[in-house]
Design goal:
The complex is a heterotetramer, with 2 copies of chain A (154 residues) and 2 copies of chain B (81 residues). With 154 residues, chain A is of the alpha+beta class. Helix content of chain A is 29%, strand content 38%. Chain B is of the alpha+beta class and 81 residues long. The chains are: A alpha+beta (154), B alpha+beta (81).
């Protein structure tokens, strides 16, 4: 189950939809919008996606997760657009008969999603905005004339 | 031949556009097409290293040929999650 | 936060209680009562705990998890008494600034709980009951005269 | 000296009791105390290998001395979760 959505992610509903009576384990990871990053207070985030490719890539990760782990179901949900502090930006839910594959599949799916799915987040502060790009967090100010690489992150 | 070129996130904001139909000649691969874009949008070079690329919604390397491709997307390193 | 409880575990409430605005990651594991085990249809489970020691051991695991991983909070909740198919028997919830420690702490806590906390489950079938004891599942029929070791599990 | 002995799960069902106040003499360690229990409750030996043990709510080895201990619990391998 793959979802790219602008409305809030209803996690309890996700796992109620996934779970069957033959499953003994549910592993779950939620990404939540934090109120600060490197000491700067974040007001909210804006997520942009290359929608068609993001959905395709999430479906590929879903299939690969089924291929690698003895699980019953995996759901990948990502929210796009404006997200407030404390809201869920991404949810991975795995249902499986046993716990080891559930936990391992959950970790695999979130790591692959963060590595491969074309989605970007922009942090919005009281005095500006910054694109977060990549694990190394190359930061690009919105105004092209102010574009620079954060020396701490190079 | 024309290809649809798409930019995202900081690349789109920097270039001032998100989608364009472009004649890629004389570029024959994705890397050369990016170099063409930078020539006409010098601000893109300020972003530092080359971005990532996808052809028809699949990740590709820089030497991927353009022949037969309908859509080329240039993508900053992803930061979803 | 450690809870040994006879009432249903309210998972969404657990993580709402745990999470702070500085946390970007919530990892969660749920154990759920399955409808069958090795082909035999389970009606429900009965969990028995050595209550005082189980709570002490869960508190020790809580402290050890904090000592090993860069997390903000960890909750360990286990239900005791009769539990129906599809109900949550155990929940681990971890809130952390970042995802790797959240996922690793969640796995550590559930593995330690299953290894060390004195709780036992009895599977109830239409035609009898069986104690599940240990990872190797030495099974002991309730009637002492029928006590035997399951040769498949030895 | 007397110690409180507690049994759980299959051990309690097998012995027919859950808690008892017992004079451990001549046993001086946990293993010898278990052997005493098996002598007076032969059904316990049918459960196969020795159970686990805890003194005053902490896991202990079989050679743990009883001296100074208030409560000894004998526990089947755990199966929570």
């Amino acid at each position: 189950m793959v979802r790219l959505q602008t409305v809030p992610i209803d996690v309890a509903r996700l796992w109620n939809e996934l779970r069957a009576d033959s499953d003994g384990a549910i592993a779950q990871f939620l990404g939540v919008v934090r109120d600060s990053n490197r000491g700067r207070r974040v007001l909210h985030l804006d997520y942009e996606a290359f929608t068609e490719m993001a959905e395709a890539e999430m479906s590929r990760i879903e299939r690969e997760t089924h291929g690698r782990f003895a699980i019953s179901e995996v759901a990948l949900a990502h929210r796009v657009g404006r997200i407030e502090i404390g809201e869920v930006s991404v949810a991975i839910v795995v249902a499986a008969p046993h716990r080891a594959p559930a936990l391992e599949a959950c970790r695999f799916a979130i790591e692959e999603l963060k590595r491969r799915v074309p989605i970007w987040k922009k942090e919005v502060f009281s005095d500006g905005e910054i694109w977060i790009e990549g694990a190394g967090e190359r930061r690009v100010e919105r105004n092209p004339s102010a574009a620079e690489t954060d020396p701490d992150q190079a | 031949m024309r290809v649809e070129v798409r930019l995202f996130a900081s690349l789109a904001e920097c270039a001032g556009w998100r989608v364009a139909s472009i004649d890629p000649a004389p570029a024959t691969d994705v890397g050369a097409l990016w170099d063409l874009l930078v020539q006409s949008n010098p601000a893109l070079s300020r972003l530092g290293s080359r971005p990532l690329a996808a052809c028809d919604r699949t990740w590709v390397e820089w030497n991927h040929p353009i022949e037969g491709v309908r859509e080329v997307a240039f993508l900053p390193p992803v930061s979803g999650g």
